[in-house]
Design a protein that fits this description.
Number of helices: 1
Shape: rod-shaped
Radius of gyration: 23 Å
Largest sheet: none
Number of domains: 1
Length: 53
């Protein structure tokens, strides 16, 4: 076969690295969405409190 052991190891390494990066990216996206949602909730609560007074 034309595939040497080192080549397949490199491919596997790069592949696993890209998966890890994608997971991290997905997690940070979720965290950002959560933070935006929490921020929005807090802001709306504050605005409601200001309106009440």
């Amino acid at each position: 076969s034309s595939w040497s052991t080192s080549d397949s190891w490199k491919t596997a390494y790069v592949f696993s690295r890209s998966i890890v990066m994608a997971e991290r990216l997905r997690i940070t996206m979720c965290q950002r969405l959560c933070l935006h949602f929490i921020e929005f909730e807090i802001r709306s609560q504050v605005e409601q409190n200001v309106i009440k007074e």
